[in-house]
Amino acid sequence: MSEHTIIPVHPQSAEYSLLTPSQLQAMTRRAERDPDGFWLDQAERIHWHSNPTRAFCGSFQDDVEINWYHDGTLNASVSCIDSHLGDRADQVALISHRDGTDEAEKLTYRMLHERVCRLANALQYLGVSRGDRVAISLPMVSEAPIAMLACARIGAVHVVLFGGLSAEAIAERLVDSGARVVITANEIARGAKRIPLKHIMDEALKKAGAESAVETVLVLRTTDAPIAMLPERDLDFHDFVDWFEPDCIPEIMNAEDPLFLLYTSGSTGKPKAVVHTTGGYMVWAAYTMGMVYTHRPNDVLWCTADVAWITGHTSVVYGPLANGSTTMMFDGLPSYPQPGRWWELIERHKVTMLFTAPTAIRSLMREGDDLVNRYDLSSLRLLGTAGEPISPDAWMWYHDVVGKGRCPVVDTWWQTETAGIMLGPIPGAQKLKPGSATMPLPGVSMVLTDTKGDVIEGAGEGCLCVTRSWPGQARTLWKDHARFQQTYFSFSPGLYFTGDGARRDADGYYWITGRMDDVINISGHRIGTAEIEEAVGADRRITECAAVGVPHSVKGQALVVFAIARDEQTSITPEDITRQVSLAIGRYAAPDEVFIVPDLPRTRSGKIVRRLLRKIASGELDTLGDLSMLSDADSVDMLINTVWKEE
Ligand code: WTA
């Protein structure tokens, strides 16, 4: 398999695409020629209270100001729910399949409207109003999208927190976001494991202390596990919420009012919250999902991403609902209680579009083809991936074994900051190349530059940048616009730098080569090595450390930490360091391997050479390259001995 493999436009293309290849080309040209007109047309995909008359205002220069549809007003929950009540009130909007149960909960658009309105009224009763932040830490159950949409209904800004975060990491985010209300659950079931969500939240609130603005915690009971409730702060979700009226007048928001904050990792230690606003984000969710996932009536889209990530926000909640589709959620694991669990669910719920991460594909692939072939997957018409590079062989397995060669695979490239798909195929209108995220969507102005920021024309390899704003672009970082400018616009003024490298082939197809900064991607989870190093370095027994990502056959990358103990008498073990990272960030960020070493390879100016650490950790010992720039070349032998001594 090579990059020369080309999958022609699938023969049943009429089933997939809303566009012919020539219509797609015309659309791309129009977006280039008349961006304002193009994006105003795309704005019609969602419901506005008052239509915008301008698309983009602002500039990537100087202070960087990004402003879309600024005179439009709307409410995101109206676009996702009320706008469908006329013609599809009784269509299922949300299927929520709980692990360990046989029957899924199915909510029609009418039922979703009622549930969202009750919670919106309850939040208002608790004093939440426009602009207030509400933190949501829930498993993949229907209350998660309901909570997001209820916030949107009253103009509150949701902050969804990943269930794998430690109490310390949650505390930091609660304080930084200034959330007034928390919506959480007693626990999350992950296969046979249980994560005591409420207990972790209690710890987080204790740690945050007076710095936190949290007044109320709504607690959903997802299992029978007992929960300790603090009478003056905690409320049982359903006991409280179900009393409220099933209708709530939506707050009319300006297009540029924030819809949500989402924390993500960058190349410095502190967590940063990306800010997405209402109008542009909603247009972007509807446009990208509509173009690539080509939603139609009776489609059931199952995006397996956690709602706490941008894929969950856009592909589980806002995108499918804005397009009037049926979205499915499942709170279990692919292989629990049996390895064919996902295929069983696709058969049962007649899923038409499956969207998952390459990590999941790689681990399902390991279970063998027979397992997949035991299930009737004929409902599927489209397969998608995002979040990390997919190798051509995993792509082909997904295409041939899961999709039986009938379903196009859409490999989509995007980021928390882009809010939706930037690179991805328009199925039925473009041929596919396994391993390539295809081309920019119409209206996305992607370029490659060299490391000085000069644009590379034609085929070549370089830094992936965007020249023009798009409606779903993050507007800023919460309370830190300077960091926003510095992170994304200082590489080459006037260009948004994604942090990724890519290659463009002679047909204009993009091949992502990976992050160029210190961000690593483990099982689709984005983790900053600086954040890990800060967590490890917080232990006084450590003087210095370095975290690197190395290739891993299932997880994409694995995390390896090298740490120097304060002195030889210090007793610190790799397990201590793993525990330290789990406490500071969460178990999902725990290193795969930790090495306590006497020193690290450095340049003569003292800078740690991470490139060498990566090579040593991944066993690429014959390509270590020139070591003459090191202050002490012997440190390399010492490291090799430490890492590979047991092998
Ligand atoms: C990586 C996830 C290769 C990339 C949606 C990006 C990908 C980071 C792809 C963002 C893809 C995302 N192929 N790499 N199709 N999609 N990435 O913010 O490095 O969690 O910068 O958003 O994931 O991760 P994030």
From TrEMBL:
Sorted UniProt keywords: Acetylation, ATP-binding, Ligase, Nucleotide-binding
EC number(s) per entry: 6.2.1.1
PROSITE patterns hit by this protein: AMP_BINDING (PS00455)
The protein's name: Acetate--CoA ligase
Enzyme class: ligase
Organism of derivation: Acetobacter tropicalis
NCBIfam families the record matches: Ac_CoA_lig_AcsA, PRK00174.1
Protein family according to the UniProt entry: Belongs to the ATP-dependent AMP-binding enzyme family.
Domain Acetyl-coenzyme A synthetase N-terminal: from-to ranges: 25-80
Segments forming domain AMP-binding enzyme C-terminal: 531-607
GO molecular function annotations of the record: acetate-CoA ligase activity; AMP binding; ATP binding
Domain named AMP-dependent synthetase/ligase: residues: 88-468
GO BP: acetyl-CoA biosynthetic process from acetate
Membrane spanning residue stretches: none
